[in-house]
Amino acid sequence: MAVQQRVYDIDQLWRLVCDSDEDMHYELIEGEIVAMAPPGGEHSTIAGEVFHYFRLFDPQRKLGVPSINAGYYSPTRRDILLEPDAAFTRSERAPNPFPRTWVPVMPDIAVEVKSPNNTFAELRRKAAIYLQHGTQLVWIIIPVRRTAEVCKLDAEGEIQTEFISADGSLSGEDVLPGFSLKLSALFF
């Protein structure tokens, strides 16, 4: 006899989270609930710095909406919910008003900060999910190396990864034209 794993959607996860008193964060990947401990100090500081630089670049939010630790999902896949450490969603794609609950569109830029308990395989899998559902750029920031990986789709829809060294910068490219963030600004 085969054992079938329960598959959840975002509505069921919302009810579970609202009924829980645990201090946990959750993502939903193809119907599987993934529990995450709250981020550590370095992790949250880096995410906060990215958010800060998004806000400095666009203080009136004319270009879009930055966020930290918000849940995003694709309206076509209710079994996927991701919580980027920081994100930017362009105005023309951002719901107005921005929802109190999870955001029904993937961000244009998703930022994942590698925690000690993350594997590169997990982060690259999440990057692929973001990109397959509308995200244009995924920045994976690697604090222990003070580097980053930038993931995006090429013209054929294949994932391309670019390594950014410690003395390099993250670019908003076509998503946030003119935005540039030196990696060294994220680390203390």
Explain this structure to me?
- The mean pLDDT is 91.
- This protein is α+β, with helices and mostly antiparallel strands and 188 residues long.
- The N and C termini lie far apart (54 Å).
- The strands form four sheets. A six-stranded mixed sheet has the order 3-6-7-8-9-10. The protein has a two-stranded antiparallel ribbon with strand order 1-2. The protein has a two-stranded antiparallel sheet with strand order 4-5.
- A hairpin with an 8-residue loop joins strand 11 and strand 12.
- The chain contains three helices and twelve strands, in the order H-E-E-H-E-E-E-E-E-H-E-E-E-E-E.
- It is globular.
- The protein has helices at residues 10-19, 41-57, 120-132; strands spanning 25-29, 32-36, 64-68, 72-74, 77-82, 86-90, 109-113, 137-142, 147-153, 159-164, 169-171, 180-182.
- Helix content is 21%, strand content 31%.
* Fraction of residues in helix: 10-25%
Strand content bin: 25-35%
Which regions are unreliable across 5 or more consecutive residues at pLDDT < 50?
none
Structural class: alpha+beta
Report the strand count. 12
- Rg value: 16 Å
Across the major sheet, the strand order is 3-6-7-8-9-10
Overall shape: it is globular
Largest sheet: 6 strands, mixed
* Total helical elements: 3
Order of helices and strands: HEEHEEEEEHEEEEE
Mean pLDDT: 91
Distance between the termini: 54 Å
